[in-house]
Automatic annotation (TrEMBL), chain A:
UniProt xrefs under SUPFAM superfamilies: Periplasmic binding protein-like II
Short name of one Pfam family: SBP_bac_8
Protein name, per record: Carbohydrate ABC transporter substrate-binding protein
Residue intervals passing through the bilayer: none
Keywords in alphabetical order: Signal
Family annotation (InterPro entries): Bact_solute-bd_prot1 (IPR050490), SBP (IPR006059)
Claim: Repressor is one of the keywords in the record: no
Gene3D superfamilies, sorted: Periplasmic binding protein-like II
Length: 424, 356
C-alpha cells in the first residue's frame, strides 16, 4: 500500500512545497466564509483526480443556493498528506479534506479531531470499507469515495506464446484458487518461456499480506507481532521462492518497471481498477493486455480514498451535508464516469452504468462487472495500526534486497526483524 | 607618546563639530552611534524570526517526544539523540554522505580548475564558452535528478544499454552502494562544475599578466606556468570553493531523494544521506522530535568540519605572505640557505668564521 503513496510523490517532490503554499493560500482566503445572510462557502480539498468536476459541484449549488463550493486539488496524495498533518491540529484545512487509504492509519491516530459520519449512513458502503475507518470508539471518520478491488491483468499474446489459454473466461478458470495455484501456473509459464510471470516480489507480497487480518500488529492493543507472525514468514518465503524464476524483479513505479510494462518483461500483474490507466499510459502501443475476473486467495483491495470533515472547521454541519451528498451512490457513479474511480457504495456496485462499462484497451473487457464482483469478493479488512506503514515499508525493502541480489533471503529477513524491533 | 596621540583626537572632534547642521547635539551623537546598527538591523531581525527561532525551537523539541498535530510533547532528555546514534542507519547515512561528497567535490574541483584555465586562454567566442559552462547550473536540481535517474536505470537505462552494446556487464546502479554514489555524484558534478569554473576563472583573470610575461621570458612553458603561477594564486578562491562545496555536499538531498521511485535511500540504504534520513524521520514518520535531534547532530558535524576548515585556511593564508607563496623549488632553496647559514653556526660558530 505504501507504494502507491510514493508513486505519486516521488516524481513531484518539487511540487510538494509549492502545492502546500498554494493550498495554504487558498484555504487562507476562505476565512471570510459563512458571513452574511446564511451564505456559506465550503472548501473541498482533494488530490489527483476524484472525478469531482465543476459541473458536478454546480449541481449541489443549484440545489443549495446559499452554498458555494470551492474545490482545491493537490497534485499528489503526498502533497495532500503533508498539508493535512501540518494543519490538522492548527487551522487552515479545508471544510472537507480527502485522505488516502495509505495514510489512513496515521489519520486514525487523530480520529477525535474529525467529525464522525452520522450512524444512518454506515450501511451505504461496503463493510470492509467502513471497518477500516472506524476507530476504537466505533466512530466512522471517513466518507468512503473509491476503492481498488484487485483482479489479474495478463498479456494474452505472451500467454499464447507459452501455450496457455488466452480467453478471459479460460484464464479466470486457470487461475482460480489460492496463491499456490497462481505460482504453479507461473512456474509452468516460466519453464516454457524462460521469462518472468509477475513484475516483482514486492507487488505480489502486497496482494498476499492484505488478505491477512492482523499481519503486523495486534488489533486489540496495537502491540507489534510482525516478527513472530507465522503468516508473515510463510508469505515471505512463498513469494521469494517463486521470485527466483518467476519475477521480473522490477520494483513497482521504477523507470525500469514502466519500461517493462511495454516491453513484455512480465506476463501478469495484480491489478486494481486504477492500475488500468497506469498500464495503458506506459504501454500505449502494446496490444494484448487483458484482465481476468479472478484474484488468488479470494479478494483483495489496493488503495482508495475517503472524505473527512475536520472538527475544527467553521461549517462542520454544512460540510457533513456536502460530504454526504458527494459520496452518495448517484454522485459517485458520475465520478466513475468522469475519472474511472471505482465506487465503494453498495448500491453503486449494481448500477447499470457501472456494470456496462468496458475498456477498449483491455480487449473491451467488461471492467465494470469484473471489478464489481472483485469488490464483493473482498472479505478481510486488514488491521493497520500506527506502525503498519513503517513495518511494511521495511518489508518491501527486505524483499527488494533479495530481488536485487544484495542479500539472501535469510539475511534480509534478519535485518528486517532487527529493524522492526528497533521501531519505537 | 600621550601628547602626540591626543592632538589629532582633538582636531577630529573640532572638525565634527563644524559639520553639525540641523540636529541638536544629543540627537546627532545618537544618530552617529546608532544609525549603522539600525541600517543593518533588518537582516538580523529577519534572521531572528526565520533563522534563530526555528533553530532554538528545533533544539527544544529535540529533547521531546513531539506530536506535530496536537502541538505538544513530552520531555525525554537525550533519548532521541541516543536513539539516532544507536541506529546503524545513521552511520550508513554518514558514510554515504561523505562518500558522495568526496566523489563529487574532488573530481569536480580538479575538472573545474582545468577547464577554467582553458577558458582563461585566448580562445574564440569567449563569452559563448563561458556562458555555456553555466547552463547546467541554471537547470532545476530536481529536473537534473529526474533525467539522470532515468539514464542510470538498471535494466532499460541508456547508460547500461550503451555499456551492453560494447559487450560489458551492466552496472548495478541501484543495488551497489558505490555505483549509486557515483551516479549521484555525477548529477552533482553536472550541476556544480560550471559554477565553480566561473568563480575560478574570475580569480584567474585577476592574476597579473606580468607574471606570465616574465615567466615566458624566463622560458617557462604553459604547464610550468600553470603550476607555478596560476595554481598558487588561486589558493584563497579555492578555499572559498571548498568550503561552499563542503556545506552543500553535507546537505545533499534532492539528488538522492529523486534517485529512485520511493525516495527513501534504497532498499539497503545504499544512497541514504543524512538529510534524506532526516526527511524520512520527519515527514515519513512524523517524528519531529527525533528529526530535530538528527538536525542538531548534522549541525554539529558541519560545525566540526567548519572548524577544521578554518584551521586549514588559517595556516594556508599565513603561508601566503605578501604576494604569493614560494614555489616548491624556491622553498627548497630557502631551506638550503637556512640550513647552510644557521645550522653550522649554531653548533660551531667559531669554526666557520675561522674558515672564512
Amino acid at each position: 500500500m505504501n507504494i502507491s503513496a510514493f508513486r505519486k510523490g516521488a516524481s513531484a517532490v518539487a511540487l510538494a512545497s509549492a502545492a502546500a503554499l498554494v493550498l495554504a493560500g487558498c484555504s487562507g482566503s476562505d476565512n471570510n466564509a459563512g458571513g452574511g445572510d446564511g451564505e456559506v462557502t465550503l472548501t473541498v480539498a482533494t488530490f489527483n483526480d476524484f472525478g469531482y468536476t465543476e459541473a458536478l459541484l454546480k449541481e449541489y449549488s443549484a440545489a443549495h443556493p446559499n452554498v458555494k463550493v470551492v474545490h482545491n486539488r493537490a497534485a499528489t496524495s503526498n502533497d495532500a498528506r503533508a498539508n493535512y498533518f501540518q494543519k490538522l491540529g492548527k487551522s487552515g484545512l479545508a471544510d472537507i479534506e480527502a485522505i488516502e487509504v495509505d495514510w489512513l492509519p496515521e489519520v486514525m491516530k487523530y480520529s477525535d479531531m474529525l467529525a464522525p459520519v452520522p450512524e444512518k449512513l454506515h450501511d451505504r458502503w461496503l463493510g470492509w470499507k467502513v471497518d477500516a475507518a472506524t476507530d476504537a470508539n466505533k466512530n466512522l471518520i471517513g466518507y468512503g469515495t473509491d476503492i481498488g478491488p484487485e483482479a489479474i491483468c495478463y498479456r494474452s499474446d505472451l500467454f499464447a506464446a507459452a501455450g496457455l489459454p488466452t480467453d478471459r473466461a479460460e484464464v479466470t478458470a486457470l487461475l482460480t484458487g489460492g496463491w499456490d495455484k497462481y505460482f504453479e501456473i507461473g512456474n509452468e509459464y516460466s519453464t516454457r518461456t524462460g521469462k518472468a510471470f509477475f513484475d516483482s516480489a514486492g507487488g505480489t507480497y502486497q496482494g498476499m499480506i492484505n488478505q491477512v487480518e492482523a499481519a503486523y500488529e495486534n488489533p486489540k492493543n496495537g502491540d507489534v507481532i510482525a516478527t513472530d507472525n507465522a503468516d508473515v514468514k510463510k508469505i515471505y518465503d512463498e513469494v521469494l521462492a517463486a521470485s527466483k524464476t518467476q519475477s521480473a524483479k522490477l520494483g513497482q513505479w521504477s523507470d525500469d518497471w514502466n519500461a517493462g510494462l511495454a516491453d513484455g518483461a512480465f506476463a501478469t500483474m495484480l491489478c486494481p481498477g486504477w492500475m488500468l490507466g497506469v498500464i495503458e499510459g506506459n504501454a500505449k502501443n502494446v496490444t494484448g493486455w487483458d484482465i481476468a475476473n479472478v484474484f488468488p486467495g479470494g479478494g483483495g483491495n489496493w488503495g482508495g480514498s475517503y472524505l473527512t470533515v475536520p472538527a475544527k472547521g467553521k461549517n462542520v454541519a454544512a460540510a457533513q451535508e456536502l460530504a454526504d451528498w458527494l459520496t452518495a451512490p448517484e454522485q459517485q457513479i458520475k465520478a466513475f464516469g468522469n475519472s474511472g474511480n471505482f465506487p465503494s457504495q453498495n448500491e453503486a456496485l449494481t448500477d447499470a452504468t457501472l456494470l456496462e462499462a468496458t475498456n477498449a484497451y483491455f480487449n473491451n473487457a467488461p471492467i465494470g462487472s469484473i471489478f464489481s464482483e472483485r469488490a464483493k469478493a473482498v472479505s478481510v479488512s486488514p488491521f493497520k495500526g500506527e506502525k503498519y506503514f513503517q513495518i511494511n515499508d521495511a518489508m518491501q525493502k527486505a524483499l527488494t534486497r533479495v530481488e536485487e541480489g544484495t542479500q539472501d533471503a535469510d539475511t534480509s529477513w534478519k535485518q528486517w526483524v532487527s529493524e522492526v524491533k528497533a521501531l519505537k | 607618546m600621550s601628547s602626540t596621540t591626543t592632538a589629532p583626537h582633538g582636531a577630529q572632534s573640532r572638525r565634527r563639530g563644524t559639520r553639525r547642521v540641523g540636529f541638536g547635539g544629543a540627537f546627532s551623537r545618537w544618530d552617529l552611534k546608532l544609525s549603522p546598527y539600525l541600517y543593518i538591523s533588518p537582516f538580523f531581525i529577519l534572521f531572528a524570526v526565520v533563522g534563530l527561532f526555528p533553530i532554538a525551537f528545533t533544539g527544544v523539541i529535540s529533547f521531546m517526544e513531539w506530536d506535530l498535530v496536537r502541538n505538544s510533547g513530552e520531555f525525554i532528555g537525550f533519548e532521541q539523540y541516543a536513539y539516532v546514534l544507536s541506529q546503524p542507519k545513521f552511520w550508513i547515512a554518514l558514510r554515504n554522505t561523505f562518500s558522495i561528497f568526496l566523489l563529487s567535490s574532488v573530481p569536480q574541483l580538479i575538472v573545474a580548475v582545468f577547464i577554467a584555465s582553458l577558458l582563461d586562454k585566448n580562445i574564440r567566442a569567449k563569452t559563448f564558452w563561458r556562458m555555456g559552462v553555466l547552463v547546467p547550473y541554471v537547470m532545476a536540481p530536481v529536473a537534473v535528478a529526474l533525467i539522470f535517474s532515468n539514464m542510470f536505470g538498471d535494466r532499460y537505462g541508456i547508460i547500461n544499454t550503451l555499456i551492453q552494446t560494447i559487450g560489458l556487464e551492466p552496472i548495478p546502479w541501484h543495488s551497489n552502494a558505490f555505483f549509486s554514489h557515483i551516479a549521484i555524484a555525477t548529477m552533482v558534478n553536472f550541476r556544480w562544475t560550471g559554477y565553480n569554473i566561473l568563480i575560478l576563472l574570475a580569480a584567474m583573470q585577476a592574476v597579473s599578466r606580468d607574471y606570465y610575461e616574465a615567466a615566458t621570458v624566463d622560458g617557462a612553458g604553459p604547464i610550468r606556468q600553470f603550476f607555478s603561477i596560476t595554481l598558487p594564486s588561486l589558493k584563497p578562491t579555492l578555499i572559498f570553493v571548498i568550503i561552499t562545496s563542503t556545506i552543500g555536499g553535507l546537505q545533499i538531498f534532492d539528488e538522492p531523494r529523486m534517485y529512485d521511485q520511493f525516495g527513501t535511500g534504497g532498499a539497503n540504504n545504499q544512497w541514504l544521506t543524512i538529510s534524506l534520513y532526516l526527511y524520512n524521520i520527519g515527514w515519513g514518520e512524523w517524528n519531529f522530535g527525533r528529526a530535530a535531534a538528527l538536525a542538531w547532530i548534522l549541525f554539529i558535524i558541519i560545525l566540526l568540519i567548519g572548524v577544521i576548515n578554518l584551521f586549514v585556511t588559517r595556516s594556508l593564508v599565513r603561508d601566503e605572505g605578501g604576494h604569493r607563496p614560494p614555489t616548491r623549488r624556491e622553498r627548497r632553496i630557502i631551506a638550503r640557505d637556512l640550513a647552510a647559514s644557521t645550522a653550522p653556526r649554531a653548533s660551531q660558530p667559531t669554526d666557520s668564521e675561522v674558515k672564512r
